[in-house]
DNA sequence: TGCTCGCGTGCAACCGGTTGCACGTCAAGT
DNA sequence: ACTTGACGTGCAACCGGTTGCACGCGAGCA
């Protein structure tokens, strides 16, 4: 029964102190505020600690300082390819600052989002909330609870936020298509109430108006492949020679829908996506508006860390990240006549 | 400057105890081992705690019990659509048990994986390691550190593991194609050294041999779209009338490559994927072997929780999850003659 | 020589729970 | 009536660090 040979317990500050012949306070300071100590002391204790394999306990530290050394990134759907770059960038940036990152997935469900946020507030020093599906009112309430919070792609006044500004990219897209001779564009709307969707729609309308070309806005769509496939017919019905979709997933669906209808992309109709989350994995490779999710993630963490350091800091930061068009092969000169389904 | 009206501190066990006229020990027991207490006491304290909005502190609890109430799921690439279902299922199952889940992304980098695991061991009660890219030797070492660990899709003896067994699905796929009249199949290999790849390759060869049809195995490919596109030409060069790809991403690339070459799928060649991670988002919708990532995630967490409860438990559990074929539209009867590129 | 001052370190309380042990109470057993 | 024991609760130590305060020492200054 003697299990003495078992797992060696992780050494505590106490055994390091004893081994180094100093008090636990000194060991503690070596790892948290070494500038208060004589250099030789720091060196000595560090050496002993290294030999013993000592690592300060996050838990104990958290208990006395109130700092968990951990932040959260919450997204609506981890499987949506827009988010992984955001998460990854956040993770990398936080890690560089000695802070761990946890990822939360709300499954596109506002109720889950609420619960998750409550839980994460107790587990982390701060939260990056990406594309929240909560009503603005609730976002405000959450922010008011005082736990550091930074939003991404959600524009709520009084809450620090990073916004990918689709407008420049959309304008470029419209210019690009107009330059190819298209005189009638369709916009395939995303989820009703989405901040990004509204921004894109408005930018598209405005630019089309400036250039004097026609813009038809289709009904809202969930950003999913099937919806895009269905939207293909709607696009053809408008007589537009080019369509811009709310996001790449939708655009990919449209591509499939066009293929099914026997309409050639880009020869007969041009398709443009948004977010650049599919890279060149579609056929034909998709012309799209690059969303810069990575930068957004990095900046959000940066802002969040500031808030964690100084809870009194600026609460109304609003950062806009301009987007831009990436031209691939799903856009081409306008055909002589609008396309029509062939089968 | 009087900030007294500021944030109300979260109430501690002490204030609840005082308000309820009991000791802190009692309050503690109400929340951890209520069966030790008289029912009326539990009810009374619970009520007071509710009024005060008291929630036990994870940190403090962790310090005295050594249980963090958190587990980790580590994946090589959060952007690879195979993993989100695994993660989500794990999250759901752990959450139901009152345990939080952290997601780690190793970016396909073994060095990062090693660091991340070390960090997570100190932050969690246990780790689910999915599709580890580490050499078996290292996986063993990590398991030997005694921190509860469950592998998914990695078959290392002596470490509890959940394996998606592709063999049944592959056999079904071969049978399906053979039934459609195909007499020559190509297998587009995945990453060299991947456990899943080897399993799929072996199963395919074996089943083809049994049915007396030809199997050509192509070189290893990274599981990415571009590689698949390139592989299309290799497939055509073999003269096979059907191809099974290591995963859906690769298969999707092959689809694009075939489209570029003007070869019709499935009329001229049939394509089958693995993992069923793209659902019906390809064109044509992909016939594929369903991987059951979700179940794997759920089971892994279940096993892990057991290990956390009883560190002395069974260390060599090995669970196999059978896969099966999902037939969509990328497979069809064999053409009279093998396809050749048209452009 | 005596006084001040600053630096480096230690003491001990504290963060917010958990838990072994002891104590008091009350019902059942003899 | 007295012992026994189960049950419910409290006391206080403990988990592993952090930190305000005090103390001792040596240098600088008058």
UniProtKB/TrEMBL annotation, chains A, B:
Protein name (database record): LacI family DNA-binding transcriptional regulator
Statement: the UniProt record of this protein carries the keyword Transcription: yes
Compositionally biased spans, kind Low complexity: 328-343
Taxonomic lineage of the native organism: Bacteria, Bacillati, Actinomycetota, Actinomycetes, Pseudonocardiales
Matches recorded under PROSITE patterns: HTH_LACI_2 (PS50932)
UniProt entry keywords in alphabetical sequence: DNA-binding, Transcription, Transcription regulation
HTH lacI-type domain residues: 11-65
Organism expressing this protein natively: Pseudonocardia zijingensis
InterPro entries on file: HTH_LacI, LacI/GalR-like_sensor, Lambda_DNA-bd_dom_sf, Peripla_BP_I
